[in-house]
Design brief:
alpha/beta, Rossmann fold, 3-stranded parallel β-sheet, 6 helices, globular
């Protein structure tokens, strides 16, 4: 996920000395995720049990895969201090689980967080911080991603189907214009 990439970049940049950034991904994307340079360790979804469960940890979930969430909670148990649901790229494997070990999952909604920061910082400070973070991320992202500018409803449909079927390349970003 490009959103996960952005978050990992900012965690590493702003807190790298204080925290270890781990990436969970599908087996076919491991080398790509490692090459991004934002993670201290990258493992496949099936290898959660190989992660050090003795340290306090938090989980930010971009996949929405309820089975994966259960694996993370079971493995880390009480060492898992926070669980945040950001996305649902694995929409076909989503679901809400009861009786998870550790913390109850919290849903992250970007507009709520932006509103909170606007109130705390004011518009000018929010915009300045956002622009600074975005600029720093773009410098890194352009070395690991190719952005494709695509046109038309059919192209959007075909691209969406590739994403849903898990066939989209992780190093490709897509920007769509619906009108030619």
């Amino acid at each position: 996920s490009k959103t996960a990439f952005g978050m990992a970049f900012l965690l590493k940049k702003n807190h790298g000395a204080k925290c270890k950034v781990l990436g969970l991904t599908s087996p076919g994307n491991i080398e790509f995720v490692k090459a991004l340079g934002c993670y201290d360790q990258v493992v496949s979804y099936d290898d959660v049990a190989k992660l050090d469960a003795s340290r306090k940890s938090f989980y930010v979930d971009f996949s929405g895969n309820s089975g994966q969430r259960k694996s993370v909670h079971d493995h880390f148990g009480e060492q898992l201090t926070y669980d945040c649901i950001v996305g649902s790229s694995h929409w076909d494997q989503s679901g809400w689980l009861e009786d998870l070990a550790g913390p109850k999952p919290t849903i992250f909604f970007a507009p709520d967080q932006a509103s909170k920061r606007l109130k705390e910082w004011g518009g000018a400070e929010f915009q300045a911080r956002y622009a600074k973070a975005w600029s720093a991320f773009l410098d890194v992202a352009k070395t690991g991603l190719t952005i494709n500018n695509l046109c038309g409803v059919e192209t959007l449909r075909d691209s969406w189907l590739q994403i849903v079927e898990g066939k989209a390349r992780p190093d490709q970003g897509m920007v769509f214009t619906l009108h030619k």
